[in-house]
Design brief:
It comes from Tautonia sociabilis. Belongs to the peroxiredoxin family. BCP/PrxQ subfamily. Its EC number is 1.11.1.24. Monomer. It catalyses: a hydroperoxide + [thioredoxin]-dithiol = an alcohol + [thioredoxin]-disulfide + H2O. By secondary structure, the chain is of the alpha/beta class. It has a single domain, classed as 3-Layer(aba) Sandwich (Glutaredoxin). It is 30% helix and 18% strand. It is built from 6 helices and 7 strands. Strands 2-1-5-4-3-6-7 form a 7-stranded mixed sheet, with helices on one face. Strand 4, helix 4 and strand 5 form a beta-alpha-beta unit. The radius of gyration is 20 Å and the shape is globular.
Amino acid sequence: MTRSIGHALLAAGLALVIARPAAAQEMPKVGDQAPEFTLKGSDGETYSLADFKGKKAVVLAWFPKAFTGGCTKQCTAYATQGELLKDLNVAYFTASTDTVEDNTAFAKSVGADYPILSDPGGAVAKAYGVLMPDRPLARRVTFYIDKDGIIRAIDTMINTENAGADTAEKLKELGIAE
């Protein structure tokens, strides 16, 4: 736009608004109240963070896409290493923006004995600040939430092949799942 057109618009009392890409949703921080969620699981049940308040810690492990390499390793690790989590007072979930149908089939394929949550609209992923800005997928991030709904740790460096064992170790370190 030339300078004279810009001046003419201003003189006419019109503002020029330049569209910018929407800012990425900010991820909550350790010590923040965890965003509420109500999501359907691969087991057909619906889970809400409020269901566990005052009762047990919650692990919410986001992954990008069902049936892809790293996500298959991560969700399989939770299935095969789940015995390390079952003795702890924790509700643990993996979650993605895939449909319930896709995650149900995916859970079966990886032998998941825990619910894989579906957020197909991405609203909860956005509230947790993990929704990719250029694609409707979640980034791989694990949130550790205590019984009071407070985020006690956030892990962005996930070893997909050891995710279940690493989660159990982190919960013990935090002392929030006892």
